[in-house]
């Protein structure tokens, strides 16, 4: 065979080989790209109340274990800041321990869907080393402590409610939230309901002009202050007292009974108020005899319309998981699982999320 022909065949063979390699590389890259597109990381960012933060963070952590490509980040900045960030569109969802009002909703151009995702108790945690249990507070005593009228722990107004409890002759230090807070809104609504003087002098809201006390940021900040200051008392979501093993006071309810915060007593309070169609309800001073008097739903705030279809659909999947498999973590962490009727209403509301 002529040398020139053999050379030409070798050249063609090499060219075919390289073309085959290029084709294989293209197919592999295409397949990889398809796989990456399917498993691409989707990040969803939320911000809001510290009240539900332990539960929300547990939910998102557990969901991420099942679907590693879905990451939901939740920043516990307080309900006031959460509503603000949600309104300005800097997060994918917000969270608040008090439902948004009509005037707040009107400011959100994408529309708002209010989703009560769980519920819980607000407790009065305290730091009295020689009285770690048994403390009872009447409605009048509770209001007067936060009005600064009761200044000492062994004041007769408190002592007569607590025979046998070793109350010290030391000052009461009130701890309250320092920032806009849904927990504060619920607590001050309750104080306004039970005390005409509180209603007139202070009133209710996410932020109020406190008569006495020291401020702490977030439920965790208030809990830390109570732990550090002997003689302190403050309001926190139940899980924060549970985690730090702080004692909590029994509170006098509308029926005149002193009730401890438990899943059962909180559920009894929750069942006194049905969720209306707009999913906004305030459980202020329930009538049920065995109900704990300070219980609230806590809301996630979703947009009706999202620009990103992937985010919208993923958020819906995460929220539906939270309302099914995720509910088992509620009671474990000290929250109150949603009643069946409420669950169905919230699931229907989630379906309104669109892209």
Tell me what you see in this structure.
The chain has 355 residues and is an alpha/beta fold. Helices cover 43% and strands 18% of the residues. It contains 14 helices and eleven strands. The longest helix is centred in the N-terminal third of the chain and has 36 residues, at 3-38.
How are the strands ordered across the major sheet? 2-1-3-11-4-8-6-7
Q: What would you call the quaternary organization?
A: single chain
What do we call the CATH topology of the largest domain? D-Maltodextrin-Binding Protein, domain 2
Instruction: Write the element-wise H/E pattern from the N-terminal end onward.
Output: HEHEHEHEEHHEHHEHEHEEHEHHH
Q: Which outline best applies?
A: elongated
How many domains? The number is 2
**How would a crystallographer describe the biggest sheet?**
8 strands, mixed
Q: How far is it from the N-terminal to the C-terminal residue, by CA?
A: 70 Å
Instruction: Bin the helical content.
Output: 40-55%
Can you give keywords for this protein?
D-Maltodextrin-Binding Protein, domain 2; alpha/beta; 8-stranded mixed beta sheet; 355 residues; 2 domains
């Amino acid at each position: 065979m002529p040398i020139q022909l053999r050379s030409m065949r070798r050249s063609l063979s090499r060219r075919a080989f390289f073309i085959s390699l290029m084709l294989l590389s293209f197919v592999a890259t295409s397949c990889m790209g398809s796989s990456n597109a399917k498993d691409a990381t989707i990040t969803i960012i939320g911000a809001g109340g510290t009240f539900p933060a332990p539960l929300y963070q547990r939910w998102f952590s557990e969901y991420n274990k099942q679907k590693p490509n879905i990451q939901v980040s939740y920043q516990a900045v307080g309900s006031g800041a959460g509503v603000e960030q949600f309104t300005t569109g800097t997060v994918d969802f917000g969270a608040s321990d008090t439902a948004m009002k009509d005037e707040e909703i009107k400011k959100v151009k994408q529309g708002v869907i209010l989703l009560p995702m769980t519920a819980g108790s607000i407790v009065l945690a305290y730091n009295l080393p020689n009285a770690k249990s048994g403390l009872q507070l009447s409605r009048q005593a509770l209001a007067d402590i936060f009005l600064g009228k009761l200044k000492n722990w062994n004041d007769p107004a408190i002592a007569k409610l607590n025979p046998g409890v070793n109350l010290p002759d030391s000052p009461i230090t009130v701890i309250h939230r320092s920032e806009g807070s849904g927990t504060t809104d619920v607590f001050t609504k309750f104080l306004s309901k039970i005390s005409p003087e509180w209603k007139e002098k202070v009133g209710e809201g996410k932020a109020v002009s406190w008569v006495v006390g020291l401020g702490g940021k977030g439920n965790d900040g208030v809990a830390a202050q109570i732990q550090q200051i002997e003689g302190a008392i403050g309001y926190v979501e139940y899980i924060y007292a549970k985690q730090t093993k702080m004692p909590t006071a029994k509170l006098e309810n509308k029926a005149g009974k002193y009730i401890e915060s438990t899943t059962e007593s909180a559920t009894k309070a929750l069942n006194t108020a049905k969720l209306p169609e707009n999913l906004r309800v305030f459980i202020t001073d329930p009538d049920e005899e065995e109900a704990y008097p300070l219980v609230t739903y806590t809301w996630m705030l979703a947009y009706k319309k999202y620009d990103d279809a992937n985010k919208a659909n993923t958020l819906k999947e995460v929220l539906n998981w939270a309302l099914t498999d995720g509910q088992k973590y509620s009671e474990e962490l000290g929250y109150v699982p949603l009643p069946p009727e409420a669950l169905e209403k919230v699931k229907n509301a989630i379906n309104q999320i669109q892209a």
